[in-house]
Amino acid sequence: TNACLGAIDAADALGAFVHKTPDIALERAQAADARIKAGDAPAMCGIPIGIKDLFCTEGVPSQAASRILQGFLPQYESTVSAQLRDAGAVMLGKLNMDEFAMGSSNETSTYGNAVNPWKTDERSLTPGGSSGGSAAAVAADLCLGATGTDTGGSIRQPAAFTGIVGIKPTYGRCSRWGVVAFASSLDQAGPMTRTVRDAAIMLGAMSGHDARDSTSANLPVPDFEAALSGDIRGKKIGIPREYRMDGMSNEIDKLWQDGTAMLRDAGAEIVDISLPHTKYALPAYYVIAPAEASSNLARYDGVRYGHRATLSAGDGITEMYEKTRAEGFGAEVQRRIMIGTYVLSAGFYDAYYNRARRVRTLIKRDFEQAFEAGVDAILTPTTPSAAFGLGEMANADPVEMYLNDVFTVTVNLAGLPGISVPTGLDKSGLPLGLQLIGRPWAEADLLNTAYVLE
Ligand code: GLN
Fold this sequence. Notes:
eleven-stranded mixed β-sheet; transferase activity; single chain; nucleotide-binding; Amidase signature (AS) enzymes; 3 domains; alpha/beta
């Protein structure tokens, strides 16, 4: 813990931690020492970790990297961070992210972006988003693991950009209680770590039923670490032809082929599959996620949480709402709220929101058909490219940024588990990741397949 706290202080320029909690860390580390001495060490005893700023942590600032939550001190702890604490993990502080987890580069954060510890000679790179601080912190060895959340790729894309492992579990595996809501039907928490084994251990501590989240599954949590045998003989791995996008770079194509060969060499059977509705996933996601966000973010009214605008004489409650929300939310969040209220409005609801929901069902069915045909897991690239430069997208059409999520959003729409594993480098020496998508609740199997790719 002391080594990590020192490393964090020395790495302020990375912008990974937005709030440090050294007092809490040292207290928990001492408690962990005592438990180890007493021979009563749980799974994560004494392991220093970071917590994404989206998780409510009791008495510790939890702002979702938004100005509108400035000064908000939760009176309760999220279920996931409480479970990690109870498993002995040591919280070092809160990690940077895109505002309300909306973004793919960490540049929508009110704190400014975190920086990817990997760089090229000419440019500084994004760590990805929205869990960019988590990815940067783990990749730079500031902590041994971090929590992330993934609504459309926010664990897997930053993991791929920084050369680490990130798993989004099946929807319902980890409780969403105390996690600031973005799009409730898509949001899932998960671990970000250096290795697949670490991910297995940390996911075990984060998982489980929680009566306070009605979508949390009442299922036993397998021993994920014990599943890491490295034996995948006879497993059927699907390669979906629709993910071979026009204009896919040779590097990504080669990475994908190399990964396929590794799994084949380990005894898996490789099959071509079709997921025909893939091309509609991104548009459906960018209707459904903003729709849910616009509803979830209605609660930030200047009364119940955090920031309130300074008012002028004569301002009433409407001006208070308007001014608070106008200065409290950043541009990307305001864009999502506007898209969301538009697609939900009377007159457009059927044309956009309901249609997107029907497309979502078709996407889910594509996966179900592949699994019914005996496929155990699906292999795809995690991202269309390696990390891009900070500021490079600043003047681009926002849709350019959304295209980053093309391989990851399908998994959230279908509620499936997905993992990104670092499997290679591009020509400038930057990390690239492959994604494995599994059957519902088959994280143990998925982690074991990822273990072979690592
Ligand atoms: N980049 C996607 C978005 O901006 C995904 C974000 C996420 O998974 N939280 O919506």
